[in-house]
Structure formats: C-alpha cells, structure tokens
Amino acid sequence: MAGSNKTNPTPPRWLLAELSYKCPLQCPYCSNPLDYAKYPDELSTEDWKRVLSEARKMGAVQLGFSGGEPLTRQDLVELVRYARELGYYSNLITSGYGLTEEKIVELKQAGLDHIQVSIQASSQELNDHIAGTATYQHKQQVARLVKKHGYPMVLCVVIHRENIHQMPEILQMAENLGADYLELANTQYYGWAHLNRDALLPTKEQFEEAEKIAQAYKEKVAGKMRIYYVVPDFYEDRPKACMNGWGTTFLTIAPDGTALPCHSARELPGLDCPNVKDYSISEIWNDSKTFNFFRGTEWMREPCKSCDEKHKDFGGCRCQAFLFNGDMYSTDPVCGKSPDRYRIDAAIASARELALSGTEKPLVFRNSKNSKQLC
Amino acid sequence: MTINPDLSIQFSPLHRLQWEEAQQKYVILYPEGMVELNQSSAEILKLCDGAHKPAQIVKALESKFETSGLSNDIHNFLNIALQNGWIKQD
Predict the structure, then answer these.
(1) Sequential DSSP letters for B6-65
(2) Which domain of life is it from (chain B) (predicted)?
(3) Residue B40 lies in a domain
C-alpha cells in the first residue's frame, strides 16, 4: 500500500452510480475507459439498492446516475424512487436520448431532483457529428421539457477545439432554453479524450478568447443562470485538486460493481479495485487497498513532498501523472514545479501545430467496435 | 436584490433543505453543490415557508430563543440567502 492512513477517513459525500456503459452516443471525449467493452456485466437492481443504502448510511448525499446512458437501465425509476426514500439528492446525467415527456414526469414523481442534459454544440450539424448520432433536435426538446416540469435545468456542454468557436452561441442557446445552470466543461484528457487529444485540445488563444466571453456572460446572467466553468488545467500552472483529494469525498461505482476513487482510476495499474459484490461500501471506503492508496500525503515524492501547496491540490491528478509520465506517484505534470511539465507543453505544441496547419486528425469515436479494436 | 419587508419568503423550489444525520447538521442541496448550515441559519431557513414575512421570522425566533435584537443578523442572512437563490419572494 502506497499511502497508509491510520486515522479514520472522511466519509463519502458524492456517489456516482455509473449504471451502464451502454450509450447510443459516441462522443470522442467520453470519460469511460477505452476498454469499457471488456466489462459488459451490470449490477442487478438489488445490488444497486444495497450500494445506495450502504453509502447513504455512511453520509453520501449527492447522487449522480450516470453511464454510459443511464436511461438504458429498465430499473432507473425504481432506483430513483429508492434513492429518494433514502434521502439522496439525485441527478440524472443524460444525453437525453430516449427521454420522453412521460418518463420525465415519472422520474419527477419518483423523486428525481435534477436532470443534467448534455448538448454537444450550438448547431445541429456539429452536435450530431460530435455525438455520432442525430440528437440535436431531441436534446433541445428534452431541455425544454425538463424545465417545464419544474426541475432545475442543468445544461452541460463539453468544450474542445471543434466547438470552442461557438462559445457565444452556446451561451445564447443555454439562456434561450432557460437553463438554471450551464456547465461549460473544458475537456479533461482521460479515456477517449486522451486518445483524441491532438484533435480536441484548443490552442491557448482559443481558450483565452472563449474564457473571456464566458466570464463576461456570467456577469450578464448573474441571478438567472449560474455558469460553472470547468478550467482547462493544461493552461494552468498548478494542478487541480483532483476529486478533492483521493478517497475523501467521491465514490464511483462502475456498471460491473467496481468501486473507484474517481471514474478514471480504472486506468491505473496495480490498484486491485474492489467490487461491491465482494465487499460492503464501508469496507471498500475505509479498509480497501485502493481507497487508501493515495490518501493523505505519505505517498508523495518530490517536488510534492516538501511543497507548501500539497494540502491545497493533493499533488494533482494521479491519472494524469500516469498517462503522461508513466508513473502514478509522480507530480501531476500540469504543475509548473514538475520536472515533467515539458510533456504537457509538448502535447499543447503538437495539438497547436495540427490546429494551425489545418490537417485535422480523424476523431476516434467511442463505440464498442473501437473499444474492442483498441484494447 | 434585497429582501422586501412586505412579502412572505419561500424556500427555493430549486433547492432542498434537509437534515443530515451523518453530519448532524442541516444542509442545502442543489445541482453540483451542498452548503452546510449552522444552527441559526437553519432555524431562519425553516421559517422561509411561504407563510412568514421577514418581521414575522424575527418575532418567531426571538420568541423561540427568548431573546431580542436578532433583526439585523436575520436580515443580513436573508439577504445572503436571497442572493444565493436559496429563498425567494413573489
């Protein structure tokens, strides 16, 4: 075990229930693992109920039903109702695909608190291209219906090089749809986004321009629409406080029951992630090797070890350290103090060269065929 | 945006106020977030039920805690709550 922690860990607060890896969309920045097709098993309704119940007892209160597309699960309404009875504040994170008005009403009656609809772009052509499926019109309709039935409406748009020029139109679209919250999520380069990084990473100038527009709009709609701007950490000098620290707050359960400290942790070697079919949530959270691996600061090496900011960012992201440096114990390469920062700069330069020369790499879409071919 | 003394106050339908047993405190839940409340904030928000005007909230709490002079503190908190969208007045 890399980081031992003798004191009791803080209890989980956020539970991400990835109900299924099945998804009708094929977004090339999907955060699911590249090899998701290897894990077709899904937990039973009873297993999910036990997970919800045990995590709630420990103190989890924010619950996201995610995937893949969570609407592919036939027992979604039943799970939502069960979650409400337990006192969760639950969120459906959906592409909107297959979401009818009838289902929106049924989920509301079951106690769902809010729905987060993703839209890929502000134009039909680009949305449908990125999603790999014709969904634009339906998504707009779903967003209106979510609002109509009294949910807080959260619109999520993942930002990357193909749509970053649409920032003004995306903001306008969100306002027109009456979004209560707009999440502008700059792509985080894990999973499929890591694979497609050269084609997705915007240039620094594009980032700065888009951020300026978004920040100005934030002031314009203050009090009406709240904008969450997820920062692009490649252009920062310090890493993000990933997951608010390993095993402190967030618990992800993958479709097959694998428990993860973050949804990307499956990519890390040697963690032996436990499965909820074998252990209780309490055993997994408090005692498992996986959840204790990077808890606290004992696992850190230099420059993190002696850094006065280590309690602020917890050394950054372990997955990013592994993907770039091949070493999950190393400092997140985004950090200006990291000897590996040049790797991020090289990635930026590589994407920039492609962007400026106009020779775009074709995107690898997230689907089972590509997953099986790649892994 | 400040509190109107003549209108009753409602808790926002887009947020949820809830007692958390594990944390032994009230929290406000909303998309992507949670605010932990101290006891006095929670007592004020529980009275934002659509039936109480600001002065009635002050009166009810001064009576409940057998004290006086809470008006300023309560109004300050109500204004913060309004700006955060936790409460509303129609």
Answers:
(1) TS--EE-TTSEEEEETTTTEEEEEETTEEEE--HHHHHHHHT-BSS--HHHHHHHHHHHT
(2) Bacteria
(3) yes
Which domain range does residue B43 map to?
10-89
- pTM score: 0.94
Closest CA to A187 of A160, A148, A211: A160
CB B28, CB A113: distance < 8 Å:
no
What is the Cα Rg of chain B in Å? 13
Asked whether residue B39 is assigned to any structural domain, the reply reads yes
Residues A322-345: pLDDT tens digits?
A: 999 999 999 999 999 999 999 999
CA distance B42 to chain A (A): 18
User: What token pair was written down for A95?
Assistant: 């592409």
Does the distance separating the beta carbons of B32 and A154 come in below 8 Å?
A: yes
**Number of structural domains found in chain B:** 1
Q: Which residues pair with A17 in a beta bridge?
A: A65, A253
- C-alpha count within 13 angstroms, C-beta hemisphere, residue A215: 7
**CATH at residue B39:** 1.10.10.1150
**Cβ atoms of residues A249 and A13 within 8 Å:** yes
AA identity, residue A197:
R
The answer on whether A304 is annotated among ligand-binding residues is no
Q: Which among A155, A350, A312, A156 is positioned nearest to A234, based on CA atoms?
A: A350
- Cα–Cα–Cα angle for A293, A366, A78, nearest 5°? 75
Cβ distance B29 to A62 less than 8 Å, yes or no, reads yes
Q: Is A262 annotated as a binding residue?
A: no
User: Taking a C-beta distance cutoff of 8 angstroms, is the pair A300, A321 a contact?
Assistant: no
- Write out the two tokens for A33: 């693992």
> How many residues are recorded in chain B?
90
